[in-house]
Amino acid sequence: MSSQPQRSVDAAPAPPTGWFPAVHPEGPRETSPYLELDRSAWAALAKETESPLTEAEVNSLRGLGESLDIDEVREVYLPLSRLLSMYVESAGRLHRDQEQFLHQRTPPRTPFVIGVAGSVAVGKSTTARVLQQMLAHWPQHPHVALVTTDGFLYPNAELERRGLLQRKGFPESYDRRALLRFVVDIKSGKDEVTAPVYSHLVYDVVPDERVVVRRPDIVIVEGLNVLQPARNREDGRAGLAVSDFFDFSVYVDAHTSHIRDWYTERFLKLRRTAFRDPSSYFRKYAALTHDEAVAEAERIWDAINGPNLVDNVLPTRSRATLVLRKDRDHSVRYVRLRKV
Question: Which end of the chain has fewer surrounding CB within 10 Å, N or C?
């Protein structure tokens, strides 16, 4: 176990109104720039719509240790996919209106870009995969690309050279200039854009391998730090942030102690599966006893993933368009949506 104290900004389960307090100028009535719906109210928004995914498809999308099922997809992700589809259609109308206003044909509408952020082990990758599959079933936008920011991590050799290997996943461990250039190229309407590929098995960027994105209707960009604000440039001026080019963003949230438990549970499952692969970077953990594995997972969390969550990832939550708040069992408990 690490000697570092466990840090948390969620010492108790957060009440729905506890994230973004506001003071009403005319009295104590609290106002907020967000709308909040509990699970049942959110699910009711799509009760007349049939989910496009089968149970087998849902099972194939489920992340390790998560409780995603057909009910979760119908009650949480179906309303979200409908809402996102409305945003995409609205962007298309705005593009056509702008053409009419300018009295000229402009370049084709650029892809609608959605950012998905959240902690390690919170389930953001599953959220991104489910949204990709569901949005692609809507006929208005059948081509949906998904890109993870892991590929934009510096290779291990470069991280080691910079003394950052033990800070992998922190903002400074990413080639942020390359990631920004990728998103700018997407929003510039380039016919073909490529991104590097990351292997979780070997824990490194795969040399000379790229994922190719060719004029999709929607691009989902998923990663820990996609909602990071812009850094100031050397000349003192504010730079650009990746999220400046998002049309919508989702933050997958949960109590920090729950995420720590999920990380440990996932580590134990990987110890019995992927860690046993001779090619795995984490092969050394396969031989640990149960108690040793728990201690190692908690040490890694307390030294790396926990501080990164508290210092870098969680502060970006309020920048999201929509927050999915999860309960201890990984199910979404309520949704917080920014007002328009």
Answer: C
